[in-house]
Structure formats: C-alpha cells, structure tokens
C-alpha cells in the first residue's frame, strides 16, 4: 500500500469526507492537522501554493483536495494509486 498523508483541520467537512472515503477503501493514512501556521506553510509549499484543506498526497503523487480525489475515484484511478 502507498503512503498516504492528508492535511486537515478539525472542522473541515471536506476533510471528513476525504477521510471517510479512505476509510471505506481500507487505506491507512497519516493525518496532519494544520492549525499550526508552520504546518500550514509546509503544506502550502508542498501543495505548490494551495492553501485549502484537505490536501492529499498518495506516495509521490499530490492528488489535491477531496473533489480531486473523488473525481480520480470515479475515473478508476484512485484504487491503482492506493495499491502502489
């Protein structure tokens, strides 16, 4: 299984939806809460300027946010990425 990191905030509904989708797929992930400004800055740099949460990384691939991950899943691309 690929290494999955998801940057979140506690009250973000898209973060909860993204985690629920990953849980449904049985994927283990590391959640990084970006309430600390340094962690948010690190996320923004890694996500090439995107400041919104969630930001999802699967292996070396920056998937983007929840909508991006859901679109990737509908296209059949998420499961192969998770299986890396």
Automatic annotation (TrEMBL):
Gene3D superfamilies referenced in this protein's UniProt entry, alphabetically: Glutaredoxin (3.40.30.10)
Pfam family, one: Glutaredoxin
Record SUPFAM superfamilies: Thioredoxin-like (SSF52833)
All copies of domain Glutaredoxin, residue ranges: 4-63
Keywords in alphabetical order: Cytoplasm, Disulfide bond, Electron transport, Redox-active center, Transport
Biological processes, Gene Ontology terms: cell redox homeostasis; cellular response to oxidative stress
Molecular-function GO terms, alphabetical: glutathione disulfide oxidoreductase activity
PANTHER family associated with the record: GLUTAREDOXIN 2, GLUTAREDOXIN-1-RELATED
Family: Belongs to the glutaredoxin family.
UniProt function note: Has a glutathione-disulfide oxidoreductase activity in the presence of NADPH and glutathione reductase. Reduces low molecular weight disulfides and proteins.
Protein name according to UniProt: Glutaredoxin
């Amino acid at each position: 299984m690929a290494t999955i990191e998801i940057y979140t905030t506690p009250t973000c509904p898209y973060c909860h939806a993204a985690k629920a989708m990953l849980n449904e797929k049985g994927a283990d992930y590391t959640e990084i809460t970006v309430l600390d400004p340094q962690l948010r800055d690190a996320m923004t740099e890694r996500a090439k300027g995107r400041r919104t949460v969630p930001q999802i990384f699967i292996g070396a691939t920056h998937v983007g946010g929840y909508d991006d991950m859901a679109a990737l899943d509908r296209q059949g691309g998420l499961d192969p990425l998770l299986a890396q």
